[in-house]
Design brief:
The complex is a heterodimer of chains A (121) and B (111).
Chain A lengths: L2 E5 L3 E2 L5 E8 L8 E8 L6 E7 L4 E3 L7 E6 L4 E6 L8 E9 L5 E5 L3 E5 L2
Parallel strand pairs in A: 2-11
Antiparallel strand pairs in A: 1-3, 3-8, 4-5, 4-9, 5-6, 7-8, 9-10, 9-11
Chain B lengths: L8 E4 L5 E6 L11 E6 L6 E4 L13 E6 L2 E6 L8 E8 L1 H4 L1 E3 L3 E5 L1
Parallel strand pairs in B: 1-9
Antiparallel strand pairs in B: 2-6, 3-4, 3-7, 5-6, 7-8, 7-9
The chains are: A mainly beta (121), B mainly beta (111).
Chain lengths: 121, 111
Amino acid sequence: QLQLQESGPGLVKPSETLSLTCTVSGGSISSSSDYWGWIRQPPGKGLEWIGSIYYSGDTYYNPSLKSRVTISVDTAKNQFSLGLSSVTAPDTGIYYCARLWAVRSNYFDPWGQGTLVTVSS
Amino acid sequence: QSALTQPRSVSGSPGQSVTISCTGTSSDVGVYKYVSWYQQHPGKAPKLMIYDVSKRPSGVPDRFSGSKSGNTASLTISGLQAADEADYYCCSYAGSYIFYVFGTGTKVTVL
């Protein structure tokens, strides 16, 4: 059964870069049918897609975040990572990683448990 | 790109049916058959309930059903149960620039 687990610092200072890693277990990140994505949720608010990546390294970003986002993949470690630069308080929230089914379909399943990131000095 | 519009809350008694709407535009919900729905209990990660407008993943009760008409998608929960009390989010593919847009979220309350 495929499982995803986010990891990274829970506290990031304003203007610095948020860095998170998602470790995939129970399956290969190099599956030809799978993409991988990051979604975030500010406290008490809704979900926002951040971006997605294919194992080949092809990336797709939310236009509103594109200038600050970098998503990369490490197939040897079965991991993919998120970098969000120049963070401010509105970037505070729970960050989820998920598998994205994007071959003749488009949906996120399963999701990691999420990790809370707080932007504060 | 604005979020898809959902009612803030809906409620129903056990055994009743409730329907949650998800209104988008002709650039997302109206043109693509890729609407998905997620259930989120407090403090938990979202769980896929419906994909491709009306398909149910294995393990999701058939009390959950999805449909779409024009720019509006809908999730119906029949035979409402206490365990269905949660937040629900829709999501639509929106083309190769915006990609994915989520709904504003709806809190379902079982009276």
